[in-house]
Design brief:
alpha/beta; 7-stranded antiparallel sheet; 607 residues; 8-stranded antiparallel sheet; binds fructose -6-phosphate; single chain
């Protein structure tokens, strides 16, 4: 969380910092700020405010700051409320800095070094600025090294010293920083998406190394202050980003991209009519020698795990556990060297998922990361990586990341089924045929999005909503409910339909919105009878149902949306597109900021 940027260049950097902060705003958008060294007055000038980057831009327009070296920050508040004082950068004496992460022992540091008198804000960050200033002896690297020895927690710190104009220093533990050469200087940022077409190569700053950013050089020093050669990676996804294109929000654009990105994720893994994980470098014994699977992830990515579990148990007949990454290491999970741990993450930076992975590896498990962002921390920590290649996902609510993660998991399951003898040749063939039809199934729903928009209108006034389904349908409803909650603020719960009458049905009264999904043929009748139970309590029912399922009582539904008939194992894809669109239209028609829902951030780098 929190977006960080730094530039040192030949031209003024104010506008570039603001533009990059806009690209990083999905990491946090409570407040924004920048600090630029003004060569004429030989001083660092800070502009910051609560609110969006657009508010900061207005402030900068009133009194622009000239200068060719500067840092910027967009905040997701952890310590201290959302106000101008708590916004970054923080300045103490000769030191100006921005921070992403959490300093767990900031109060201890403050009291031990008697820094309290110098502080203006309530943040953990300002304490570190004061500590570095206290230690500063004209040698930035030595001072930073000394200061970080006292810090417990995660941090990406980007620092300017008044007497070192034109140079930016950075150091990190866990929280990411990348650095790159631009045409006319150098830059650093929290993630590769922020490089925004200014660079074609980047380096990931190694943990506890200190980076010095000069106009013409990126210098990296290890913990012993030895200069090390930075390792540069190619940027092989489009960071230039053509913005939202013709869509009002990134979320809609990303929903609409799904047929294409799902196809890419699958086609690259289907070679000569067989599922192949060769380009992922996954060795067969990894998939044959494991006796159980543990999937761990957060939020939407965890929902991919739940759907995968249903499929794995069904096809592979293996024992699979799906764990909240945030609970993982505290739940004493049963893991050994026969356990295959799969971590799923769009950003590859979610700290809970990263820590869960590290824990699992310490217990001897082998691991696969299903990741979108190349070179991210989780990708680097995993034994093997399957990239989802969805391209940058900017809207806070995940859409194309979810379906591409699912697609990759389906490819993995298909390959395991072949290797472990669950699929014979004809079963593999028909599974692959199904996979190749997913994009068309999703496109079918997207083409009828105006119907979903119509359904959304009936939810605009709702305070609560319920989603019900069974089996694989239930797993997608968990995701559908999360989408509706996070961007429309309607309290929504997904229930396994059979569970309703064990308590929750007490909440279903006249006109309570209930959304039901029925795509699983073997449990259709049971599901329809659960639906009748809520109908008879007056629920306002919307049904998403496969087009090949007959309904005798169609008139009893407020809306019926027909889903393309597909293999039951694959219908989750078109359903997910339908539920994403439903949440999207409710949020948009409620006049909300769809891409930046309140209190959230795209990348969760704090525990
Ligand atoms: C919801 C959403 C989150 C993320 C979760 C994990 O729309 O996006 O629930 O899925 O924060 O993030 P990643 O996948 O980056 O680990």
């Amino acid at each position: 969380m929190c977006g960080i940027v730094g530039y040192t260049a030949r031209k003024d950097v104010e506008n570039r910092i603001l533009n990059t902060l806009e690209l990083l705003e999905y990491r946090g958008y409570d407040s924004a700020g920048l600090a630029i060294y003004n060569e004429k007055f030989q001083q660092v000038v800070v502009r910051k405010c609560a609110g969006r980057v657009s508010d900061l831009r207005e402030k900068c327009q009133e009194v622009p700051v000239a200068g060719t070296c500067g840092i910027g920050h967009t905040r997701w508040a952890t310590h201290g409320g959302v106000c101008d004082e708590n916004a970054h950068p923080h300045r103490c004496g000769r030191v100006t800095l921005v921070h992403n992460g959490i300093i767990e022992n900031y109060e201890e540091i403050r009291d031990h070094f008697g820094l309290g008198g110098e502080l203006i804000s309530e943040t953990d960050t300002e304490v570190i600025a004061a500590l570095i200033d206290k230690f500063y002896d004209g040698r930035p690297r030595a001072t930073i090294s000394r200061a970080i020895k006292y810090i417990k927690g995660t941090f990406a710190l980007v620092i300017m010293f008044d007497d070192k104009p034109g140079v930016i220093y950075a150091v990190r533990n866990v929280s990411p920083i990348v650095a790159a050469y631009t045409g006319d200087g150098t830059m650093l940022a929290s993630d590769v998406a922020a490089l925004g077409g200014q660079a074609d190569k980047y380096m990931v700053v190694p943990e506890y190394h200190i980076v010095e950013l000069h106009q013409n050089a990126i210098l990296v020093y290890d913990e012993k202050d030895q200069k090390v050669k930075p390792e540069f990676l190619e940027i092989d996804w489009d960071t230039t980003r053509d913005g939202k294109g013709r869509y009002p929000f990134y979320m809609e654009k990303e929903i609409m991209e799904q047929p294409e990105v799902i196809k890419n994720a699958l086609c690259s893994r289907i070679v000569d009519g067989h599922i192949s994980l060769e380009t992922d470098g996954i060795p067969d014994p990894l998939l044959t020698d494991c006796s159980r699977i543990v999937i761990t992830a957060c939020g939407t990515a965890r929902h991919v795990g739940l759907a995968s579990k249903a499929l794995m148990q069904n096809i592979l007949r293996m024992h699979v556990d799906v764990e909240y990454a945030s609970e993982f290491m505290y739940s004493n999970p049963v893991i050994d060297e026969k356990t295959l741990v799969i971590v799923i993450s769009q950003s590859g930076e979610t700290i809970d998922t990263l820590e869960a992975l590290k824990y699992a590896r310490r217990q001897g498990a082998r691991s696969i990361g299903v990741i979108n962002v190349k070179g991210s921390s989780i990708a680097r920590e995993s034994d093997y990586v399957m990239y989802t290649a969805a391209g940058p996902e900017i809207a806070v609510a995940s859409t194309k990341a979810y379906t591409t993660q699912l697609a990759v998991m389906y490819a993995l399951i298909g390959r395991m089924a072949v290797l472990r003898g669950n699929f014979d040749e004809s079963q593999e063939k028909s599974f692959i045929e199904g996979l190749l039809g997913i994009s068309a199934g999703v496109q079918n729903v997207l083409d009828r999005r105006t119907d979903i928009h119509r359904i959304a209108r009936d939810l605009l006034e709702a305070k609560d909503a319920f989603m019900i389904g069974r089996g694989l349908d239930y797993t997608i409803l968990l995701e559908g409910a999360l989408k509706l909650k996070e961007i429309s603020y309607i309290h929504t719960e997904a229930y396994a339909s059979g569970e309703l009458k064990h308590g929750t049905i007490a909440l279903i009264t006249e006109n309570t919105p209930v959304i039901a999904v029925v795509t699983q043929h073997d449990i259709k009748e049971k599901e329809l009878s659960n639906i009748r139970e809520v109908q008879s309590r007056g629920a306002q029912l919307t049904l998403f149902v496969s087009e090949d399922m007959e309904l005798s009582d169609q008139e009893k539904y407020s809306h019926v949306f027909r889903l393309p008939a597909m293999d039951d194992r694959l219908s989750i894809f078109p359903v997910s597109a339908a539920l994403q669109l439903l949440a999207y239209y409710v949020s948009m028609d409620r006049g909300l900021d769809v891409d930046k829902p309140r209190n959230l951030a795209k990348v969760v780098t704090v525990e």
